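Our consortium's second objective concerns turning raw sequence data into structural hypotheses that experimental partners can test. To show how far this objective has progressed, the report includes one record in full. It was chosen at random from the queue rather than selected for favorable results. The single chain below, 254 residues long, was entered without modification.
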Amino acid sequence: MRRTANAEVLVEVAVDSVAGAAAAAASGAKRLELCQSLVEGGLTPSLGLCEAVRAAVKIPVFAMVRPRGGDFLYERSEFEVMRRDLQHLKAAGVDGIVAGVLLASGELDEARMRELIAAAAPLPFTCHRAFDLCADPARALETLVALGAARVLTSGQAATAPNGTACIEACVARAGTRLAVMAGGGVRDDNVRALVAATGVRELHLSATAWRRSAMTFRQQGVPMGTQPPDDEFSLRVTDAAMIARVVAAVRAP
C-alpha cells in the first residue's frame, strides 16, 4: 500500500559544524545528528562543538558516539573511549545519543549495546547505520527493540535508502510502534516523497552535503594534509609500531 508524504514526517539532518547546524534549523529540520567528519560517515563531536551548536539552535541535538571511521567492530580500548565520550556528551547537554556496535559475525553486539543504551538513559538512543552492516536485519531489529533503543537509522542495507526501499518497508512493518525506523542515505528532494510513500517511514535523515571552495587566496600546491581514504569500511588505519621503532633506531644510530 502506498502512503502520501506529508508534514508529519520528521526531518533530521547530520551536521558537523555550527554553520551547518544553523542552516539545517533555519531550513526546517526538526532534529540534528551532530558529528565530526561527515566525510568519514560521522565521528564523535568535540565538546566545544556540542556546546557551540547547543547555543546556536533550539531544536534537539543528538550526538554521535563513534571513535573512528571504518567498521563497527571495536577493540576494548575503543569501546572504553565510547563509554567516556558518552558520559561527557550527556554532561554537555545533548538530547540523544547515536551509536552502534557489531560483532565480527555481523550481529549487533548485544552486551555492549545494552551498556551504551543504559549509560545514555534517560536520553533516547538511536542505532545508526551499523544496522546496515548486520547479517540479519530482522534479528537486529528485534534485538534493538528488546534493548530499548528508540530508533534505528537505515538505508535498507543498500547503498542508498531509495535502493533499499523493500527492506525499509519490512522494518517499518515489523517494528510497528515499538521502534522508530528512520530512512537515511541518499535522501534528496527528488526521491523523498516516493521513499516515504513506499516505506511508511515517519522520520528521514540526510546530510544535504554540498561543497564550497576555500576562501584561501594563497594556495600551496602539492602538500596534502591527510592520507588517502581506504577502499571500503573494512580497511582500518592503524599505527605501525614496527615503522616507529625503525625510525627511532635510525635517528639514534651513530
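The partners drew two points from this record. The helical segments are 18-26, 47-56, 76-91, 110-120, 137-147, 165-175, 192-199, 241-252. DSSP finds eight helices and eight strands in the chain. Both points have been shared with the crystallography group to help prioritize constructs.
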